[in-house]
Amino acid sequence: MLLSDRCGRSDAGADGRDLSPPPLQFSDAITEILDPESYVQSQALAERLVDAGALGVVYPSVRRAGGTCLACFRPALVMNVRKSATYRLRWIGGPIPEIERVGPALP
Q1: 89 burial level (CB within 10 Å; 0-12, 13-18, 19+)
Q2: Could you state, in order of their start, the residue ranges of all structural domains in the chain?
Q3: Which of 32, 75, 76, 85 is in Cβ range 3.0-4.6 Å of 105 for a Cys bridge?
């Protein structure tokens, strides 16, 4: 199987406002919220955050060690969308694809 993927970059902001959610009462369920196998708890949390007026949330990536993710709950917060690099992913019998950069990274 062959797939080409064009990456993009964007800026996110809220006119200087903090995107952090309002304080919530968390239980010991943080591992359930960040479960890479199920989105049930994270989607429930996102619904509570939206209901509480949050604009978005920054959270640790469960797919890339040390990575950080941003979920914007308001599309208007995503600005200055632009093209970035293009990659070709090729699966040859295994779960991990070969990854080849086929285009230059753009600013």
Answers
A1: middle
A2: 2-101
A3: 85
Pairwise CA distance, residues 67 & 81, whole Å = 21
Size of the chain in residues: 107
**Whole-angstrom Cα distance, residue 43 to residue 34?**
10
Neighbours of 21 (CB within 10 A): 20
pTM listed for this prediction: 0.59
pLDDT digits (tens, 9 = 90+) for 33-78: 888 899 898 899 889 888 988 888 887 888 888 887 888 888 888 8
Q: How far apart are CA 37 and CA 106, in angstroms?
A: 33
